[in-house]
């Protein structure tokens, strides 16, 4: 396996007025291409902050982020948006679907920002992905007409629309009952095993992290175990 992500002494400080809050205190880790990794730690340990930096939603205060050998620690907002759109899929605890539009439209949306893709191509790919997640007969339903598990399947299809190389899932089963949660976790395992998708599963729950192949433990802004692959 080759290395997809490397972090060297990554730090993140938030400023609340003139008070510094050091949330990430020197994170070094490596994630291999094609792995299914969980980032586990109690609430407040800095998992979402780290995931947001890894997913180019936020920037580190200091330290280095290397993605496939390129230093991506200090990219402009536009460059980060391009990488996000091209390489990264997100799944969140609260699904984050647009309420006033269908499952199909929700899944198509990120592809409409992609160059050289027609609406027809976007629609066909969205239909295929919704079919793959078992929602062939729910494509025209709005989120409120779907169960939590179905909404999370829509979110997974949406995350896959641009053929990402990494999927980040932040507490993806947090709003689901345990049976539905397990179905969603199996879906990540399947995407990882069958498509070789690199998956980073962020969770506070040891039962959830057991679905990963490798667990990176975080505590109070540092990696306490499992950072080196
Ligand atoms: P986790 O996902 O592990 O629960 P977070 O990364 O969300 O942890 O938060 C880690 C710490 O950083 C918490 O103390 C939180 O309050 C703080 N924090 C997160 N985001 C911000 C922000 N934008 N501004 C200030 N503090 C923040
Ligand atoms: Mg979090």
Kindly estimate the percentage of residues that lie in beta strands according to DSSP.
25-35%
Q: What Rg do the Cα atoms give?
A: 17 Å
Ligands and ions found: adenosine-5'-diphosphate, magnesium ion
- According to DSSP, the number of beta strands is 10
The CA-CA distance between the termini, in Å, is: 11 Å
Order of helices and strands: EEEHEEHEHHHEHEHEE
The number of helical elements comes to 7
Report mean pLDDT, rounded to a whole number.
95
Summarize the topology.
Blueprint: E1 3-16, E2 19-32, E3 36-40, H1 47-54, E4 62-67, E5 70-71, H2 77-87, E6 88-92, H3 103-108, H4 119-132, H5 148-160, E7 166-170, H6 178-195, E8 198-203, H7 206-209, E9 214-219, E10 222-225
Parallel strand pairs: 3-8, 3-9, 6-7, 7-8
Antiparallel strand pairs: 1-2, 1-4, 4-5, 9-10
Helix pairs in contact: 4-5, 5-6
What does the model show?
The chain is α/β, with parallel strands linked by helices and 229 residues long. The chain has 7 helices and 10 strands. The protein has helices at residues 47-54, 77-87, 103-108, 119-132, 148-160, 178-195, 206-209; strands at 3-16, 19-32, 36-40, 62-67, 70-71, 88-92, 166-170, 198-203, 214-219, 222-225. The protein has a 6-stranded mixed β-sheet, sandwiched between helices. A 4-stranded antiparallel β-sheet has the order 2-1-4-5, with helices on one face. Strand 7 (166-170), helix 6 (178-195) and strand 8 form a beta-alpha-beta unit. Helix 4 crosses helix 5. The radius of gyration is 17 Å and the shape is globular. The structure holds adenosine-5'-diphosphate and magnesium ion.
